[in-house]
Amino acid sequence: MPLFSARRALFLCLVLAVLAPALHAQNRESALSEGEIEKVRDSRLIPAECIALFTKFLDARVERIQDLYAKPRRPGREADTRELLEQLTSIADELGDNLDDYGPRHADLRKVLPKLLEGTERWSSALKSLPEDATYSVGRKLALESIRDIRESATQLTADQDAWFKAHPPSKKKPEQPGPIDIPR
């Protein structure tokens, strides 16, 4: 019986060792606040609104990073920058996933994509203007890569959308209203 218990204990230790990193990863905080998550849930069915929201969230993170460097230096500024860059990268990656998802569905994003492309230029410029620091250099590189990926996706999606809607123009007439119902008497 003791041999069975030792094997069982060893097996349980191995299982815990394998599952521990996965369990720890599930406790990660979201890059979005609860209010932002609710806004995304509410707009998920309207792709253009969802992309506009993500653009707004990225603008807010970049603005917070710029505020850290516009004011006199305070302790922990570099760590705060690293945290905001991680949030920015996470939000940008989520936006990229949404762009990949909305493209094949031919959601009409023609009005929001130019604004997104303008945003990628603003964000890249703001992140490149940060002073060099080892604390957040990797985070900045990852954020810039995510922004570059968004720019590439949005550029490709703009071309795809132009071609799609040229070949399949949306109907301009109003949907017909159903007439009155005749109820037999």
Tell me the span between the first and last alpha carbons. 85 Å
Helix content: over 70%
Series of secondary-structure elements, N-terminal to C-terminal: HHHHHH
User: Tell me, what's the shape?
Assistant: extended
**Total helical segments:** 6
Derived from helix and strand composition plus strand pairing, the structural class reads mainly alpha
Mean of all residue-level pLDDT scores: 84
Q: How many strands, what sense, and barrel or not for the largest sheet? A: none
Radius of gyration: 24 Å
**Strand percentage, roughly?**
under 5%
Number of strands: 0
Q: Are there runs of 5+ residues with pLDDT below 50, and where?
A: 21-28
Could you explain the architecture of this structure?
Helix 4 (77-102) runs parallel beside helix 6 (137-167) and helix 5 (113-128) runs antiparallel to helix 6. The protein is extended and about 80 Å long. The longest helix is centred in the last third of the chain and has 31 residues, at 137-167. The protein is mostly helical. It is built from six helices and no strands. The N and C termini lie far apart (85 Å). Mean pLDDT is 84; it is low at 21-28.
